[in-house]
C-alpha cells in the first residue's frame, strides 16, 4: 500500500536451530555491538511449534543508528534460533502520519503483526481505532519474571483494566545544560529550575562572539518542540484536555500566560543573543547536532543526545549537567515520568503467537542489552528486575540511578489547577499533538498574533480534532 515505500525494510530469515550473529559495519557506518545475543531456552521451547512461521514488525526508529543495528542483530538471532522469519520496518515517530498509515493498513488487511512505539504518543490512538489486541496475558506472565513495569506504563498501556501494549524499553525525559558555562558565571547546578530561571541563565551564559548560545529549544514543528511547549503550559497550570482526556480545556488564562512567556523568548530583542542561528527552522535532530557541536548552553531532549556524546567521546559529555526538568507557577516539581516504547499486536495479525513471543524475547536479557549499550541512557529497562540483570544497568553510567528512579515515580503529579499528570490516555490529545497544533500556534505568535488570540484559535482546532476522534465537545 502507499506509504510502505517510506519505511526501510530489514528481513531476517531463520535457517538453523541455534545461532549468534555479528554484523560488520559497511560504508563507514558503525558495526553492531559485540554483545553475545542469545535466545533463552524457555523461549526456544515455546517457539518449537512455530518453526517456519513469519511476522511483520514495525520499529519506531531510534536516534542512534548503532542501536538500530543492534536491534537488527537481536532479531536476526531470534529468527535463526527459532527457524522463523521476521520482516522489520523502521518508521519515524515524528513524521506526523504514522497512525494514519497504520490505520489504513489494518483496514486493508495488510498490516504488520506487531510494532513498538511510544506508548504516550500513539497507543491511545490505535486503541481508540479498535486496532489493538488485548495482551494482558503476556504482561501478567512478564510480571512474574521481571516485577513491575515503569509506573507511566499503567497509564498509557491500560484501558478498562486491560493491557493493550507490552512495555519494551523506558525512555526518560531530561534536560541538559553546560555546567562549565554555569560555573564560569557562578550559577548554581540544581536538580531542577523554574522556566524563568532557565531563560535568565541562558541569557547570562550567552556570548555570540564565542559561539555560545544559551537557549537550545525550538518551537518549530518537531517532537521536541511539542514536548517543550506542552511542558511549559502544564507547569503554568494549563492543559489541552481535562483529566478524563475527553474534554478540551485549552483556552485558559494559564495557557495564555505560558504561551506569552514562550513567545517573548523568540520575539523580544533582549533574548536575541541567546538564540542560535537557524533555531526557527530546527527539526528533531537539530538540537542534538548543535549540542554536540558545543554551541548550546541548554537543551531538552530524550537521552539520545547524551548517548551520542558518550558513545562518540564528545567533550560535551564531561561538561553536561543532567537535570529532571523545569517547574512553573502551578507546580513545584518537574513533570518527569518518561514513557516506554511498547509492543502492540494488531488485530488481524497473521501470527499473533509468534508476535507475542518476539515481544517477550526483546524486553530483557542480551536482546535488550545489545540495544541499550549502543544508546546509553536512552534505551533503558522498562521492567524493575531487568535493571538488576546486568552490571551495565547498575554501574554503566552515573545517570542510571536517577533514570531507574524515574521509572518508579509516584503518579499522578497534580498541579495547583487540579490537572493530574499523566492524564487518562487521550486519542484526541495524541492526534492534536501529532498534527503540530502547538508548534503552529507558537509560529503564529512569533509572527505577531496576540497570545490570547492564538490560544483561542488553537482551542477551536483542537476541538475539531477531538470531535473527529469521537469526543463531542
Q: Keyphrases for this structure?
A:
single chain; 16 strands; seven-stranded mixed beta sheet; D-Maltodextrin-Binding Protein, domain 2; globular; 473 residues; three-stranded antiparallel beta sheet; 2 domains; alpha+beta
Describe this structure in words.
The chain is α+β, with helices and mostly antiparallel strands and 473 residues long. The chain has two domains: 4-172 and 338-407, 3-Layer(aba) Sandwich (D-Maltodextrin-Binding Protein, domain 2), CATH 3.40.190; 174-335 and 435-468, D-Maltodextrin-Binding Protein, domain 2 (3-Layer(aba) Sandwich). The protein is built from 19 helices and 16 strands. It has helices at 41-47, 65-82, 98-108, 119-128, 136-146, 153-156, 179-184, 195-205, 223-236, 253-267, 286-292, 304-311, 352-362, 365-374, 391-395, 400-407, 427-434, 437-446, 451-468, and strands at residues 8-13, 54-60, 85-91, 114-118, 158-159, 162-163, 166-171, 174-178, 193-194, 298-301, 320-323, 326-327, 339-345, 380-381, 413-414, 420-421. The chain has a seven-stranded mixed β-sheet with strand order 1-3-2-4-13-7-14, with helices on both faces. A three-stranded antiparallel β-sheet has the order 10-8-11. The longest helix is centred in the N-terminal third of the chain and has 18 residues, at 65-82. Mean pLDDT is 91; it is low at 1-5 and 15-32. InterPro entries: Bact_solute-bd_prot1, SBP, TAT_signal. Keywords: Sugar transport, Transport.
